[in-house]
Each structure stands twice: as structure tokens, then as C-alpha cells.
Amino acid sequence: MKKIVIPTLLSLLLLFCFASNTSAATIKGTLLSNPEKGWQRIKPNNENFTYTGQYQHLDQNYYQSKWQTSGSAIKFNFIGSKMRYIMNTWWSNSANITIKIDGKPVVTNLDTRGKDEGLAKIGFEVLNLEFKEHYVEIINNRSEYLINRGIDFDDTGEIKPYNPVITPPVKPVPSVPLDLKATSENLKIILNWTADSGAISYNVKRSTTKSGPYTTIATSVTESTYSDINVVNGTTYYYVVSALNSAGESNNSYEVSATPVPSSDPTPSPGPSGDRAILVVTMDTGLDKEFDLSKKELESFIQWYDAKDAGRGPSFFAIDKHNNNKGPFSNRKDYVIFNKILTFEVSEYSTK
């Protein structure tokens, strides 16, 4: 019974060890004569590979360093998000290889020794890189053979010459400014638009003709608003805005237009400077009406006149006749009708 149990246990242990090694070899040592779906293979004789040290090639699918020479390495750039180093095992292959991607070691002490056979296998695999240009160095730290049977990476990627200084991607020009709006004021037009995250500044362009041609009236505008004060009331202006950054200038926004108009509130008449004044109102009939008023009464009259001239307030104004009352009346008022007034005159004086 014991003779049966012990060999059985040994067999299970050996099976476990074999299974563990097989699992670890799903990357290193997996046979792969052709690239899998979603991958492409670059042959060792591709002109974008840089071989350092002494190298020899057996055919387009097989490059190796010279036996017992140091300083051998394979260098290249590629655009992609994954990579496989393809080699074959042999007893005399290097047992100490370092692979660097973008200057950082991703594997050290890679051992490529094994069964003497010329079958293409995965020597190393890396996934989930950022899809961009990377530079790769496969460095032999020993004097045995460094093999290259090909490099696999994304089928949408590209191999490029070795260059450890990668030019950053060109920044795109900003988008066309959106939501441009124009607001009219007296001798002013205010523009507002939605800021673009890729823009550094904006150009504001204007025309007095619909659809242009436009003249740039402001450059290096850093806010998403601009006030155009070089305008004439009653003239229609047409505007577009473009966005800029280090990559260039966007297309023009859609066109908006606006016409500046005078303010609805006229400039108020200056107030009286004396404490009393003689107000002479000339009616449209030619009749002059004269009133001796206090400063407060005169200010009330002027405020009523200015407001009515702007289209606000009552059509008449009541003036107290004060000492001009005649007869048994305690109070008499003279009502002046706005649209009957031809002109009025103020003569200020002081009783102090």
C-alpha cells in the first residue's frame, strides 16, 4: 500500500510543478510562429531596428549577436499599446537580458536559454501601455547570443527608428468659439462667447458689411468678452471671433450683428444754483407765463420736463402761484401742458 501512495504523491507533486511552470511560460516560451489577431510582426531585417555590438543575420527572420561578444542590444521605437519580443530558445542564448521601455526597465535578468530549437517563441510581453510612441531597448548583459526573431505590436501601430527623445504630439488648434452674442448700448457694442479650453487668446474681427470682409479690431483677448467702443450710433456692425493657441488659429465663429443706439435717458439739465428763480414759460400760442419759484419747485419742474421729454410721467405740471393769488382763494395753481410748451427760460437769483 505504501509503495502505491508514495509514488502517487510524488507524481502529483511533479504534476503541480509542471503545471506551475507551464502557467509561468504562457508568456516566456509560448510558441508563436505568426502574430495573433490584433497584432502585427516586424521582421528582424526591418530598417528601423538599430543593432549595437557585433551582429550577424541568418535570414530575414533571424538575427543574432556574435558569439562571446559584449555590448549587443536591439533598439527601436514603436507606436502602440502592447509589445512582444519574439525569440527562440537555445542552450547558448543569453541568460541576462534587460528590456527598457521609455527608459524604464520593465524586465531584468530575462533568461532566453532552453531547448535547442529554432521555433519562434514569446520571450517577453507587455500590455496596457498608453497608445503612443515608445522607445525600446533590449540589452544583452552577457556575451552569449541575443536573438531577434521579430517584434509584435498592435496591428494599428507603427515601427519607427530608435529615438529616445520623442517629440510630443502636436497640440491641435482650438475649436471655433461658440455662442457668440452681441449687445447694443450707447456708443458701444458688447460681445460675449463661450470660452474654449484649448484657447490661449482670441481675435475679434468686424465688418460693416454682412459676411465680411472682416478687419481684426482686437488681438490677444484673454477673456471671453470684448467691448467695442469705436462705433457710431445707428451703424450696423458685423462680428466674428477666432480662437488661438500655440498650434495656430481656429476658423471664424458664426457672424452676429448689432447697432448701437443712443441712451433713452437724455443728459439731465443742470440744476439751479441760486435759492430762487424766475421761470418764464413760452407757450405755443406765444403767451409767456412767469413764475417766481423756490429752488426746490424749480428742480421739480425741470425733473418733470426731462422725464416727460423721455416719454415718462404725466402730461401736465402744477405750479403754485403763491402770492399771486387774488380773491378769496386759499390756493391757486397754474397747470402747464407739456405739448403746449414752446420753450422756457430760467433766471436764477439769491435772496441771501
UniProtKB/TrEMBL annotation:
Region annotation (Disordered) ranges: 251-275
Sorted UniProt keywords: Signal
Keyword Transmembrane: no
Coiled-coil residue spans: none
Keyword Transcription: no
UniProt signal peptide: 1-24
InterPro entries, per the entry: FN3_dom, FN3_sf, Ig-like_fold
Fibronectin type-III domain boundaries: 173-264
Superkingdom of the organism of origin: Bacteria
Entry protein name: Fibronectin type-III domain-containing protein
Organism of provenance: Paenibacillus kribbensis
